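User: Okay, second chain of the day. Same drill as before: sequence in, structure tokens out.
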Amino acid sequence: MSNDRQIRLAAFDWLEEQVALKGDVLPRDLLAKGFDFNGQQIRFVSPQGIFKPEAMEYPLSITTVFGGPYDDSFDDDGLLSYRYRGTDPNHRDNRGLDYAMLNSLPLVYLHGVAKGRYLAVWPVYIVGSDPSNLTFTVAVDDKRTILRPENISAEDRSAPRKYITAVVRQRLHQRGFRERVLRAYSEQCAVCKLKHSELLDAAHIIGDSEERGDPVVTNGISLCKLHHAAFDKFFIGITPDYEVHVREDILNESDGPMLQHGLKERHGQRLIVPRSIASRPDRERLEVRYKRFRAAQ
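Assistant: Same drill. Structure tokens below.
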């Protein structure tokens, strides 16, 4: 096994460990530090979007920076269009991705969902190159392909890759929404002030499959797992004036300290809202949602 492949596999294993510990959105500082491989530091990011660690022969990762200069986007086929570095197709970074395409090398894709925060996706493969438009086409694939020899035709791989890439595209929207909402609420639960981000969610006021269910901060509330579930199941409701109400039958229950302190004592308290008025929950959406809560009484 070549040194490049050994490092590539070790990089995927390291990412798997980090995602298990921290979730699939990772801080840039962690990715910039990377991990040690036989005395060599393997990093995942640099100021350039296409990145090859010094210890490797070919690129390991491609990055889309949040709010960056490149308009990386999904094309009509549902695959990612990724910009070349610069305007010279023969730049060494662009040639490196051409090699990755010709040799089916698995890469890591890091998509910035907020400043300094990246959704880590792997393996991705370069499946097309268009020098005239300075773009590569990128597809996400099943992780089992990392170790399996490339013995399936491009035609047979096309459909599953499109499906997996579409799933990742949805994750990008969801994680971006979560990061923006949690940041607006200073990464704490708006009901109980819990600050452990691993236990926080961005709860939709209006569901994302509904009209006005847009993934905007004003349609979200930062809630811990308990209060998110309680909000979704109408155990609690939030008035348009940002007051937390607990359902009457829950108030009348007796079921230990969790119910007492976690829910019942929250009745009548004020919701903790972002400092920025523009980021606070939309009152009209809250009114729609609160009517549903009242109907569930």
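Residues 3-181 form a domain with the PUA domain-like fold (CATH 2.30.280).

User: Thanks, on to the next one.
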